[in-house]
Write a structure and sequence with these properties.
Layout lengths: L17 H9 L7 H10 L5 E9 L5 E8 L8 E6 L6 H12 L3 H6 L1 E5 L4 H6 L21 H10 L6 E9 L3 H14 L13 E5 L5 H11 L13 E2 L2 E2 L5 E4 L15 E7 L8 H20 L2
Parallel strand pairs: 3-4, 3-5, 5-10, 6-9
Antiparallel strand pairs: 1-2, 2-4, 6-10, 7-8
Amino acid sequence: MSEQHTYPIGIAGQPWSSEHRQQWQAQQTVQRSYADEVVTKVKALADNWDIIEYGQLPYEQSYPLFALKHKQWQKGRPIALVTGGVHGYESSGIHGALAFAKQVEHTQSANFNILVVPCISPWGYETINRWNPDANDPNRSFFEGSVVPEAQLLLDFIAPFSSDILLHIDLHETTDSDNSEFRPALAAREGIVNHNWNIPDGFYLVADSERPQASFQRAIIDAVGKVTHIAPADENNQLIGADLVQPGVIEYAGRKLGLCMGLTPAPYVTTTEVYPDSPQATEQNCIDAQVAAANSAIAFVAAL
């Protein structure tokens, strides 16, 4: 895609005002139920997991936020953290985290204390949005003093565990709606022109450029490649405008950009991306890929 989309909110070349953000918010509607589709699945895991409500989002409708702490938790063991739903519209990240928690393997819980935060942005889940109601991206907001409650509430919750977290895998999707809605909306909000329209067809990883851990990333790609296809590079040897550092892997500066994968100082971190709109993918296949990524990440670190 080369032509620039126009967006119905804002003035071309000018960042949005608060009125534009309010206009955007007024156009959002609830399209699915966080309580029915996520919270019920969280509560169904109570036999093996301690369910922790770590905050509530302060919106017109209050959304409780949940973390799962495995009941085989033992003091002194390293922590493996799995997060999903930073972007609420990315369904397989949320349901992948829940599926991982439902079938967590004994060997994993024997080597690690496991912490799962399945849906960081429930308003985004219900309205199928990348942003929160204030048109802020939670996945660019993970820094102390953040005005984005999805990010700050998680930062506060994770802080007591942070020094013990050895591994963090953050589960995401890249979808066709990135081009039809979210990239045009971002360009309009910032008053800029978007030039990158690449959507990779397949699974890929975003490593943290400050702690890339190439062998760790490769192990995940190898494992997920048995479940679903890995995204090929574009004609520029890139994915979403970033240079490929190895097959299926690009790098971002996690902490500098305020990404969720910069949440902790864990040495082993990555962000997954699946492509649910691929003709080669299904909803279940995408969930299975997320579970395979989390399992292989933990298995790699456990074997060190």
